[in-house]
Structure formats: C-alpha cells, structure tokens
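Here is one such tokenized protein:
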Amino acid sequence: MTPLRRFIDRLSRIRTDDDGQGLAEYALILALIAIVAIAALLFMGSQVSDKLSIIGSTLNSVQN
C-alpha cells in the first residue's frame, strides 16, 4: 500500500468517526428539556402547588 493511499484511508476514517457526536446531541437535548422544566416550575410553581393542595384536601375529605 502506498503512503498516499494510507493517508487517504486515514482521512476517510476520520470523517466517518462521529460516534461521540450523537451522545453530545442527546446531552444537549436533555439539558434543554431540564432548563425548560425548571423555568416552568419557577413561573408556575405556586399555581401547581395550589392545585395539588386542593386535590390533596379533596382526597383527604373523601377518605375520612
């Protein structure tokens, strides 16, 4: 095998070696979902807490 052919083969392997790219993309998507969930809880936390309190008191009154 000639040195030029080995060099071309090595370059072609470098371009197709993107196994870590998919993992990084999934990590970015997961981080974005976490940020959106935290922001939603910060803005709507009191409303959600109020609704859960109503549901809890209703379930408690039914149980007694």
Q: What stands out?
A: Residues 14-63 form one domain. The chain has one domain: 14-63. Helices lie at 3-16, 19-63.
